[in-house]
Amino acid sequence: MYTKYIKRKRIPLSYIQVLLFMIFLHVHTASFAQQKKITLNETNASLKQVLKKIKAQTGVSFIVTSSMLADSKPVTVKVTNADLTEVLSLIFRQQPLTYTIRKNSVGITRKIVSTNIPGIGNSTLIEIHGTINDQQGKPIEGASVALESSGIQALSDINGNFALGWIPVDGLLIVSYVGYQKKMVP
Question: Is the pTM of this model over 0.85?
Fold first, then answer.
């Protein structure tokens, strides 16, 4: 008698799947974050500076990319003994970003935009960009990333990076490269 071993292949979550996961999370605030009060008096400060000050006062960690911080607008906020949710609501009101509170961390993502575009219709849009890597984690240059049936597409650069811009959230992405099997990403 022998035992048949099945080798499982771990499929890493793509940037799109992680982004969609964060978008669909409900806003939950841990009790410690709501109990901690925040005092800020900032004028035209960078979002990065303001988040550091909030972290120092509450211990909450922020999950955000440097490109999102670079796209953020200066922050002017004045609060005394305010809750975390109240402060974040004020800070992100005029930003192209939004947030999700989960236990002792805050995930920051780009805002989803709803619009009516000819050819696409009234749809919810999301900004898509990411990196194409092979199984060893090496970037793939020249991979095609396209939105199905739309004509919107991009090629990955020498570092495997691509950007499609704003596309419908329910769109199907098709990733292809010579010598690799075509992959569809919802």
Answer: no
